[in-house]
Design a protein that fits this description.
alpha/beta, 2 domains, Rossmann fold, single chain, 314 residues, Alpha-Beta Plaits
C-alpha cells in the first residue's frame, strides 16, 4: 500500500533523511519511531504530499505522491499532532465541511460523515461545539476528519499526546479497530502505545532506518543476554558468589531491598544453574523471574549507541 524508495531530503548540506526504503502492506499498522530530529516529521510530510523530497519516490496504492497528488490525497487521511479543528463549529458540521474540502460527491457526504462519527464513537457529541469538548473527544474529532473520506491510508502523528489514561485507552482501541480496513502509520513517543497497537516497528535515527521488524523480532536481535530479577532474604557476599557462576555476565542491585538484576548468557541452562546455586548458598531465595526486554530498552540502544549505525541489518 505504501512504497518508499531511496527517499532523501536535504536542507543545504544537512540530510534530514537519507536513502529511506520501506513498505507497508494493506491493512497493516506500523509504529514509526525516532528521537526528536530523527526525520519522522519530514518523512510524514513527504508521504502526505506536503513537502517534496530531494530525491527518491513515494507511492500510495501504486500512485506516485508527486506525479499523481490528487489521486494520492484521495487515499490518505492525516492527523497531525495538533488536529486541524475549528472550535466554533459543531462536530457534524465540521465533518461535513471537511468532506466537501476533500472532494466527496454530494451523495457521499452524509454517509461519509455518519461512518466517521460511528468509527470515532462521536455520536453523543456530534451536535456539540468542538471548543466545548474534552481533549479526548477533540482527538476523536481529529481522527474522524482523517477518516471522513474513507481513505486507504491513515497517517497519525502523536494521536494520544496530552490525554489522560482513560482517553489513551479509548484512542488505542480505536486505532486497533481501524486495522484491516485501513493501513495505519503511527508516530508517537509513547512507546507502550506501539507495543499495544502496532504489528511492525520502524525506528529511524539521524535520518536513516536503524531497525525494522516486529517487536518480538527486535527483542531477539537486540539481546545477546537475558536478565533475571532475584530477591533473597540474606545478602552476605551474594554478589561475589553470583559472579563466579558460569554464564553470569553481570549483577547489580535492584530497586527493592535485598533484590538484584542478574544478566546471563543465552544458554538455556544458565538460569537453572543460577537458581540452584542461590538455593545451595543458603541466601533464602524469595523470588526469581525473567525480566522482559522493553521497547524502551531497544529504542535507547538503537538511538544512543553505535548499533544505530548498523541500520536494518540488525
Amino acid at each position: 500500500m505504501i512504497e518508499i524508495s531511496n527517499l532523501t531530503k536535504r536542507y543545504g548540506s544537512i540530510n534530514a533523511i537519507h536513502n529511506l526504503n520501506f513498505s507497508v502492506k494493506k491493512g497493516e499498522i506500523i509504529g514509526f519511531l525516532g528521537p526528536n530530529g530523527a526525520g519522522k516529521t519530514t518523512t510524514m510530510k513527504i508521504i502526505t504530499g506536503f513537502m517534496a523530497p530531494t530525491s527518491g519516490s513515494v507511492k500510495i496504492a501504486g500512485f506516485d505522491v508527486f506525479e499523481n497528488p490528487i489521486e494520492v490525497k484521495k487515499r490518505i487521511g492525516y492527523l497531525p499532532e495538533t488536529p486541524p479543528l475549528y472550535s466554533d463549529m459543531l462536530v457534524k458540521d465540521y465533518l461535513r465541511y471537511v468532506a466537501q474540502i476533500k472532494g466527496l460527491p454530494s451523495s457521499q457526504i452524509e454517509p461519509g460523515v455518519a461512518r466517521a462519527i460511528e468509527k470515532a464513537n462521536l455520536g453523543q457529541v456530534q451536535k456539540r461545539l468542538i471548543g466545548n469538548l474534552s481533549k479526548g473527544f477533540r482527538q476523536r474529532v481529529g481522527v474522524a476528519q482523517a477518516l471522513v473520506h474513507n481513505p486507504d491510508v491513515l497517517i497519525l502523528d502523536e494521536p494520544t499526546v496530552g490525554l489522560d489514561p482513560k482517553q489513551v485507552i479509548e484512542i488505542r482501541n480505536l486505532i486497533k479497530e481501524l486495522s484491516g480496513d485501513h493501513t495505519v502509520v503511527l508516530s508517537t513517543h509513547v512507546l507502550p502505545e506501539v507495543t499495544a497497537t502496532c504489528q511492525r516497528i520502524i525506528i529511524i535515527n539521524k535520518g536513516e532506518i536503524a531497525a525494522e521488524d516486529t517487536f518480538e523480532g527486535l527483542s531477539k536481535r537486540m539481546t545477546s543476554t537475558r536478565r533475571f530479577y532475584v530477591k533473597i532474604r540474606r545478602t552476605g557476599d551474594f554478589e561475589a558468589q553470583v559472579k563466579k557462576i558460569v554464564g553470569v555476565k553481570g549483577i547489580r542491585p535492584g530497586t527493592a531491598g535485598n533484590s538484584y538484576e542478574v544478566e546471563l548468557d543465552k544458554n538455556d541452562d544458565s538460569n537453572e544453574m543460577l537458581a540452584e546455586a542461590i538455593v545451595k548458598s543458603g541466601a533464602g531465595l524469595m523470588e526469581f523471574r525473567s525480566i522482559d526486554v522493553s521497547l524502551e530498552d531497544i529504542f535507547l540502544k538503537l538511538t544512543t549507541t553505535d548499533v544505530a549505525q548498523q541500520g536494518a541489518t540488525l
